[in-house]
Structure formats: structure tokens, C-alpha cells
């Protein structure tokens, strides 16, 4: 949950989105965005173990292996929910009141010291009933840092005197600042706030999609769990450090876990991540490296939105690099009913939610600046084995709702007492893809098939226009022969296809497809030339309501 907006996001619309990104409803396990009382209840229930953090005042070096062993031991014990009791004046804060409490920048950790990183904390309250503890380490020795009431500013309509004598053992979360744009100004780099949610920025980008430590039973018939980072162990950065190292405890009723993050700021900010998971119980669906984003409408599904803006989304597609090197692009949609896509893979090289369209003219939003929302690519480290990249698309009628989720589901089920470990590299920024010789999908357009006048008579027909740009085919002559490879499932048939030149040097593949039943139609196309693949693969799920 992100309740405090970035200084570079000025609209209330964007602020509301930050505040409800992780708020979840117990009654609707598929939903990631219900606010209000349900959000507060879920935030309280999806909490950490009630025991003390793994390290306190001990004077021996504390390592990631030490933390992992402590979490494995914790997982062998019964889960105990924490005491989420807060003083009434804190527990009853409204959204606007909570936003009025700001950390004083001059109180940031390490501000008075030379170096590349500062740390600020978030005050508890509103939906943030459970707190997390922050331990600062030097040479492997970690001690809890307790923030004082004077570290925060209490703006109107709050009465500052009501908070000055309060002692809160933990905070709602924290953020790290670093000089991304210029050496004399510390930009927000990464924020950990709410359950296991966190977000990061590369140079020039604005907060958009989020990551989570773990997803448990998302889009299943069971109640979704929201594991929570209950304690962080942060190495105090030295002046010469170009990265900051953070360990974290993760707890939920079903498991305990140990996380290690090494965060390196840059044009593309990277977060090297290792998670060690210790299930207490068997878990129906375990989502590794989950990503959460927003897709309201875009070029392929904007007809029903009366909005001056052509597109509104934080991400416009799911991107996968298979073990074979094949690149896959799956445009996102805002469906009328819950849509689930399962893409089976064997140790994929990468997957992520990207914002490819960087043209401001395609958004026309001077406040939200969706053209500057970061992409997030997960690069796998080691052999992840067989599994599925799962994409969840939830209907939404507002851009404040995060309605897109993507994660990796290992084929090996999480079983009680069976440890699991995954390592991956997260890449956050405006450009997260490496250069390629393959043409990439730059646009997907969907409309009625045949003549517009016949649309009512043939609602089962659709026309698709897929634009490919870049790669080795960019500068080919207009009469070059490019062959489409089109896979249409048995419940649909291809009526027409053609490849034509685009004015900007790209190529367009046009398809007309007719469906033969009400089941989803899974389409798959790519371009070839001289029997060689010259483009990434375009995937699309056409449902009876889209």
C-alpha cells in the first residue's frame, strides 16, 4: 500500500492510486484494490508473526544465513498474529489526516554523512495498522532504530501536541533517497510500504507499478494471503558504496521467509533479490516475484471510455524472454470479467510488465505523466525449472485501481516443511530491454471485423492490426516479402491476413478472425523472412466480451 505520494506526482488521482495499491478485500480474493474498511481489515489480518524479530541487541555478526535459519525455525512454529494495537489518535487517522503526517527531510538517516543514500520513515495509521521495525547494521551488528515523534511534521488539520508524547515501536515503512538526476539532489529511489509491497525508480521515471515479496493464492477459490515484511535489516552505507543492502523478514499464516535486496540506483535501477521460503502449510498457488500494475484503457480497448486522454495505464504489456531466446509480447486489457492467462515456460530468462509507449501525445496527461511510468523486468538467476507465468486482469472502472498482476508459479508445489529458494534481478526504469535484432510490437489495435455496417450482424468477427518496429526489417524496401506465422486455435478461424509497410519504417500485420464458440481465443503471431524469425511473438486472449 502506498499512501504517501511521490513529490513528483501532483494530482489527487495519482495519490489515491498510491494509497489503495495494496488494499485488499477479504470477501473478494481476486481483488487487489478495494479500499475503506475491507482494506483496513485485510491490512490487519495479512500480518507478521507475533514474535520478536530475529535479531535485537546481540553482539555477534548477523548474516543472511543467520536470518534464513531463524525464519526456518519460525516456520516450524504455529503462526501467531501480532498485536496491532495503536494509540487511538493514530489508529483512527483518516486518509487525509495520515497524509498530513510527513517525515522531516532534515531528520533523514545518514543525511549529515557523506554518501549516496538517505532514509526516511512513514508514520503508521490509516490502513497501516501493523508496523515494521528497522534495524541498522555496521559490520554485521544490527540495532533497532526507533524514530521519535519529532522526526515527523504534523500538518493541519492535525494538532501536533496530540502526537508529541506518543511512542510507536515501529513504522509503516520507509523510503530510500539517492541522487538519480543530479549530484546535489536526493530523489526517491525505493519505497517499502504496506504488506510486502515496494516500488523503485530509475532516472527520469515516476512511480507507477509495484512489486511484492510474494503472492499466495492470488486468483484462486481460496482467500488470498498478503505476506508482510515485519522487520528490515539495513546496512549503513559507506561513502564509497554505490549500492545499499537490505535484508527482510517475511511472515504470513502459510509461511515465513528471508529476503535479501541489493539496490543499485541508475538510469535503470537494479535490485538483486534472493528469497528463501519456508512453508508452514501446503500452498495452493505460490506466486514468485509478483508485479502489480494498472491498465484502465489503451489503443486496443478504448471505445467505451469518454475521456479526453487516448490511453491511461501504468503498463501496456507482459513481456517474456523464453529459455530459447524467443521474446513474447502480450498486450494488456481491461476485461469486462476476470481474465486469467497461463503461459507455460521452462526456466524463462525474464518476464515483466513494461510501459513501452513513451510518447506523451498518446496519453495527453500533464499531471499523471503515464509516459514516464517505469517498466519492471524480472531477470531470473539460476534454473527456475518448469512453471507458468500467470497474468491476472481484473475489470476496473477507475485508474486508481491496480487491476493487473503477473507472477511466476513453479510447477513444484509449495509443501509444508520443504524450503524453496529463488534469485532474480529486478530492472526498474524507462528502458529495461536490451537492444535486439528482432522487431518488437509497438501497437495493437482491435475492432469489428468486415464492414462496420455489418458489425451487428457478425459480432463474432474481429480485426486485429499489430504494428512491428525496429530490428533488422526496419530498413527493408517496401516490396520486401515478409511472411506472417499465425496460430489460430480450433475454436476460431482465420478469415484474412496481410502484411503492409508503415510510414515510419515499421510493418503492420492485419488479421481478421472469426470465433466459433464462447471460449477464449488464444492468438499467436510473429513475422519471418527467408525462413528466419524476424520479430518477437505477439500473444492475445480474445474473450467473448472483448
Distance between the termini: 30 Å
Give the overall shape, derived from the CA principal axes: globular
Q: What's the CATH C level of the largest domain?
A: Mainly Beta
Spans where pLDDT lies below 50 across 5 or more residues: 1-49
CATH architecture of the largest domain: Distorted Sandwich
Helix content: under 10%
Overall number of structural domains: 2
Tell me how many strands there are. 33
Structural class: mainly beta
C-alpha Rg (nearest Å)? 24 Å
Largest beta sheet, briefly?
15 strands, mixed
Mean pLDDT: 88
CATH names the topology of the largest domain as Beta-galactosidase, Chain A, domain 5
Strand content: 35-45%
Tell me the number of helical segments per DSSP (H or I, 4 or more residues long): 5
Domain Glucan biosynthesis periplasmic MdoG C-terminal: 62-542
Main location: periplasm
GO cellular component, one term: outer membrane-bounded periplasmic space
Subcellular location: Periplasm
Amino acid at each position: 500500500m502506498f499512501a504517501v505520494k511521490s513529490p513528483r506526482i501532483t494530482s489527487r488521482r495519482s495519490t489515491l492510486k498510491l494509497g489503495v495499491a495494496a488494499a485488499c478485500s477479504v470477501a473478494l480474493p481476486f481483488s487487489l484494490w478495494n479500499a475503506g474498511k475491507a482494506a483496513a481489515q485485510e491490512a490487519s489480518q495479512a500480518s507478521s508473526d507475533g514474535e520478536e524479530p530475529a535479531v535485537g541487541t546481540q553482539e555477534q555478526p548477523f548474516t543472511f544465513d543467520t536470518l534464513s535459519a531463524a525464519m526456518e525455525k519460525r516456520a516450524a512454529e504455529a503462526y501467531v498474529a501480532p498485536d496491532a494495537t495503536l494509540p487511538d489518535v493514530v489508529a483512527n487517522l483518516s486518509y487525509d489526516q495520515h497524509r498530513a503526517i510527513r517525515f522531516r527531510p532534515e531528520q533523514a538517516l545518514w543525511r549529515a554523512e557523506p554518501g549516496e543514500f538517505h532514509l526516511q520513515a512513514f508514520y503508521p495509521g490509516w490502513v497501516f495498522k501493523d508496523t515494521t521495525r528497522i534495524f541498522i547494521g555496521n559490520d554485521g551488528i544490527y540495532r533497532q532504530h526507533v524514530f521519535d515523534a519529532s522526526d515527523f511534521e504534523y500538518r493541519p488539520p492535525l494538532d501536533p501536541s496530540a502526537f508529541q508524547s506518543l511512542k510507536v515501536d515501529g513504522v509503516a515503512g520507509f523510503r530510500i533517497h539517492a541522487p538519480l538526476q543530479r549530484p546535489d539532489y536526493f530523489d526517491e529511489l525505493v519505497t517499502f510500504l504496506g504488506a510486502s509491497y515496494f516500488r523503485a525508480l530509475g532516472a527520469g521515471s515516476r512511480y507507477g507499478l509495484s512489486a511484492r515479496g510474494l503472492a499466495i493464492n492470488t486468483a484462486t477459490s481460496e482467500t488470498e494471503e498478503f505476506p508482510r515484511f515485519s522487520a528490515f535489516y539495513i546496512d549503513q552505507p559507506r561513502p564509497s558504496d554505490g549500492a545499499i543492502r537490505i535484508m527482510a523478514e517475511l511472515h504470513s499464516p502459510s509461511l515465513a521467509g528471508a529476503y535479501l535486496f541489493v539496490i543499485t540506483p541508475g538510469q535503470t535501477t537494479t535490485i538483486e533479490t534472493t528469497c528463501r521460503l519456508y512453508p508452514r502449510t501446503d500452498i495452493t498457488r505460490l506466486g514468485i516475484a509478483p508485479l502489480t500494475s494498472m491498465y484502465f484503457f489503451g489503443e486496443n480497448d478504448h471505445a467505451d471510455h469518454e475521456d479526453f486522454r487516448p490511453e491511461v495505464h501504468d503498463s501496456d504489456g507482459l513481456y517474456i524472454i523464453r529459455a530459447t531466446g524467443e521474446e513474447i509480447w502480450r498486450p494488456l486489457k481491461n476485461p469486462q470479467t476476470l481474465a486469467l492467462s497461463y503461459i507455460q515456460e521452462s526456466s524463462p530468462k525474464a518476464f515483466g510488465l513494461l510501459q513501452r509507449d513513451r510518447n506523451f501525445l498518446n496519453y495527453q496527461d500533464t499531471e499523471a505523466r503515464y509516459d514516464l511510468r517505469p517498466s519492471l523486468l524480472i531477470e531470473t538467476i539460476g534454473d527456475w525449472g518448469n512453471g507458468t507465468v500467470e497474468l491476472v486482469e481484473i475489470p476496473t472502472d477507475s485508474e486508481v485501481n491496480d487491476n493487473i498482476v503477473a507472477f511466476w508459479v513453479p510447477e513444484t508445489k509449495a509443501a509444508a516443511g520443504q524450503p524453496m529458494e529463488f534469485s532474480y534481478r529486478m530492472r526498474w526504469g524507462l528502458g529495461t530491454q536490451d537492444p535486439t535484432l528482432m522487431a518488437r510490437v509497438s501497437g495493437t489495435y482491435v475492432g469489428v471485423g468486415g464492414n462496420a455496417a455489418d458489425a451487428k450482424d457478425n459480432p463474432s468477427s474481429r480485426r486485429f492490426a499489430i504494428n512491428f518496429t525496429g530490428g533488422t526489417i526496419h530498413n527493408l524496401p517496401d516490396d520486401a516479402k515478409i511472411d506472417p506465422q499465425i496460430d489460430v486455435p480450433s475454436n476460431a478461424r482465420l478469415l484474412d491476413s496481410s502484411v503492409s509497410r508503415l510510414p515510419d519504417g515499421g510493418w503492420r500485420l492485419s488479421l481478421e478472425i472469426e470465433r466459433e464458440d464462447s471460449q477464449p481465443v488464444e492468438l499467436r503471431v510473429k513475422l519471418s523472412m527467408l525462413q528466419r524469425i524476424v520479430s518477437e511473438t505477439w500473444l492475445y486472449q480474445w474473450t467473448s466480451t472483448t
